[in-house]
Amino acid sequence: MLLRFLVKGVESLSYLIAFVVGGLICVIGQLWMDLTRASITPAHILVGFVTVGAVLSAFGLYQPLVDFAGAGATIPLSGFGHSLAQGAIKAVQQKGLLGAFAGGIEATAVGIAVAVVFGYVIAVLFNPRS
Amino acid sequence: MNGNVEQQQEQEERQEEYRLLVDEIEPKHNIVKNCFFAFLVGGSICLIGQLFLTFFLTQGFGFNEAAAVTAGTMVVIGAFLTGIGVYDEIGRIGGAGSIVPITGFANSIVAPAMEYKREGFVFGVGARLFTVAGPVLVYGTLISCIIGLIYFLLY
Amino acid sequence: MGDKCGQQSLIFSQPPVIISGANIVGPEEGEGPLGSYFDWILDDPLFGEKSWEMAECKMLEESAKLALQKIELQTQDVDFFLAGDLLNQIISSNYAARGLEIPFFGLFGACSTFAEALLLGSMLMDGGFAHRVLLGSCSHHLSAERQFRYPVEQGVQRSATAQWTTTASGVLVLEAQGEGPRVNMGTVGKVVDMGISDVNNMGAAMAPAAADTILTHFQDTETNPDSYDVIVTGDLGSVGQAALVELLKQRGFDLGEKLQDCGILIYDTCEQDMHAGGSGCGCAAAVFTGLFLRKLREKQHQNLLLVATGALMSPISSQQGESIPAIAHAVAVSS
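YS: structure for the whole thing
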């Protein structure tokens, strides 16, 4: 019963597509790090992907990728940028100017709160190993 | 005065010469190998995400909710793997493949917070939680507000 | 009284004697090829302390006590303690000195600190200001990582040119008379900056400083490569050593097999995945007090030149994009 979703996904090739697209997005990050030498840190990569994802999304270029690749497009941090941009755009449609400021954070509030809460709990419970 | 300029030029030339020498000596990144592992690790993380996404979709969530719950689940997994000391090993192999997915975001939240616990709960855990997450949220918020404002003006 | 010689060198008229040495290293260093040369290998990088900083401090303090124990001396028998480390405001050395209660000079020369301490200690002795001097330096991989790079659990790929800060401490005791290797000469390094700004390639930043000091030493003291059995650089690593060989070749010196590097010796760089090799204040300290002190005592080496190198940047200067200034101090020790 529970495993029916597995079969469904395999039939539609969605796992393979998510793997390939997600992998390729990460390769872009790797090339960026390797070709620009040492001044690029993980923080730069993450900020860059969120920003680029949001801009692509605003031009309507990221949604087709999400439709095609599912988690392959939403799990890379560019997907976080996509949620921010789409949240802002939808909120403007509903609330006008206020929405421009509220929309992005509203749409990603769950993710941010989960990250902070679980990040905190794990940081308190565990100690760094060598 | 003139002597100084000449000296500086000479110094710059020597520096340039040395930089060329170092470029020749230093071992090169194996870009093909790095990219292959980034693809493998990043792809696998997204594949696991897709498993959760498909699962949540069959549980009656709409696509956006299912995607949000999936992201939350992956954050929890990434945070947990960081806590038990596995994620840095994945990162050593996967490079960007472990940084770019949202699990890498979770890793960058937990790792400094955990590390600086000894400096207390306010300046240690509290402040360091946002060492990397802070810039991401700052630029994320900025860009979403800019996009919202532009959209508002055009709409 | 000693003499200054040439531009930067010193010759001691009554060369101080190294009467004792001790070291403590972490688990990775213990597993390395020099494991059997070290006095004390820790299983636990925390050394029973609350933090890595305090563990590093305890390593220095315990190796100091160990070095004195070996020759049955107490801390009050020592006139001065000279030490340094990598942490902000050299806290490891400060806290170790608090425990030892010996008049203290805190030094910072990054990874060159050990040679700096040995040089200054010898000058104190030869100047007649001290009868016995204790000197050392230490570093800890995990405390240095968090200060200079990333939290340990963060998933970051290390660059192929990156060096691994060693968890190690090393201490020597100098005395005016006695049996043992003697510190004959030294050359004080100048700060050299060849414009390298990649913090993952400190070896390349330090190699020009090492070349400068070695060449000046030969010139000032009228020595040449044949005067030494072995010339030991501190922690250039494989990239820095290759650069040094090239730089010396350009000036007509080929040291060949004589040139050794503590950072390369301390790890099995392939097996242990240490990339370019070890670094840190403790690296030269532990390798000198472990491997080379024994070889000098056993007369396997007659004349040794220790050239410890240090990269003098801080996380702030590198974030601001400044290049890395470097220094190297040379100390000539004979058996």
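YS: worth flagging: DSSP finds eight helices and no strands in chain B.
IM: good catch. Also Chain B has a mean pLDDT of 92.
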